[in-house]
Amino acid sequence: MMDHDDFPLSPERWADASAYFQAFLKAEEFLAAIPAKSRGSNPDRLLSQITSDLYSSREQPATLLRAAPGAAEAGAAVWLSKVRTLAHWVTASVPVPAFQGLLPSDLRDFARMSVNVKQLPDLTGHLLQRGIVLIHESAIPGAKVDGAVFKLAGGVPVIGLSLRYPRLDHYWFTLMHELAHIALHSEHLDSPIIDDLDADRPDLVERQADRLAGNSFIPAPAWRSCPARYSQSERDIVDFAAGLGIAPQIVAGRLRRELGRHDLFSGLINQVNVREIIFGQD
């Protein structure tokens, strides 16, 4: 009978090789399931990256996938691999300061940047100064993913935003939601949190991130006394937002969500197209 020394690979190495092959097969399935244009100019490189992501995550806690039932798993996986690849490129290309932590109070400072849409392209640099890598990567058709947050092997936090919707209020809430995860849930970020903000998010981690994101824009006492909640007046929305130093679209968006009336304030909501600013496209 042959013993282990007669094999070119030890049982442990065979197990690793088998796991890698299974990851490769799954990565092929993912790529086959998305539109060809979403595979980019170098699908072989993307295949390799997805395989590595799947293989490296086999011993980590299960990914906290915050997506509605029926969301395209393949599109989410491919999009996340693109974000991870770009994040690695950033950390290899420019000096990234050591991440020193993020306090809930820090989010209020970021919220105030929402009032000036010309500052949107500057957010990447501002976050990089805090040791956080921000990646804008277009959503893959069919993938219900708004954002993601995770840490690279060296501990660098990464936020990915898909700009699935071009609205300013949605962009800012997604960004603040991911920043809230960094501030509150750093211990969870070795495995990615992927967010579909249209989905019901009943678990505590997501409710905490939603609450901190919302309160960073509008403190709870201020919201309770917000005149626009009762008048539904655009003038009241604009005045209330100006008093808080935030974009009026954020107030309008919150009102629409709470009232379940997405037909309200369309003129105000659609004044800014974030995709045009960030990607130069609709």
Descriptive report:
Helix 1 packs across helix 3, helix 6 (168-184) packs across helix 7 and helix 6 crosses helix 11 (248-259). The protein has a 5-stranded mixed β-sheet with strand order 1-5-3-4-2, with helices on both faces. The chain is built from 13 helices and 5 strands. The protein has 282 residues and is an alpha/beta fold.
Low-confidence regions: 1-7, 59-71
Largest sheet: 5 strands, mixed
Arrangement of strands in the largest sheet: 1-5-3-4-2
The average pLDDT value, as a whole number, equals 85
Which structural category fits the helices and strands?
Answer: alpha/beta
Number of strands: 5
Q: Beta-strand percentage? A: 5-15%
Shape: globular
Terminal Cα span: 67 Å
Radius of gyration: 21 Å
Query: How many helices?
Result: 13
Helical residue percent?
40-55%
What is the succession of H and E elements? HHEHHHEEEHEHHHHHHH
Annotate the secondary structure layout:
Layout: H1 11-33, H2 43-56, E1 64-66, H3 73-93, H4 104-112, H5 123-129, E2 133-136, E3 147-151, E4 157-161, H6 168-184, E5 193-195, H7 204-217, H8 220-224, H9 228-231, H10 234-244, H11 248-259, H12 266-269, H13 274-278
Parallel strand pairs: 1-5, 2-4
Antiparallel strand pairs: 3-4, 3-5
Helix pairs in contact: 1-2, 1-3, 2-3, 4-6, 4-7, 6-7, 6-11, 10-11
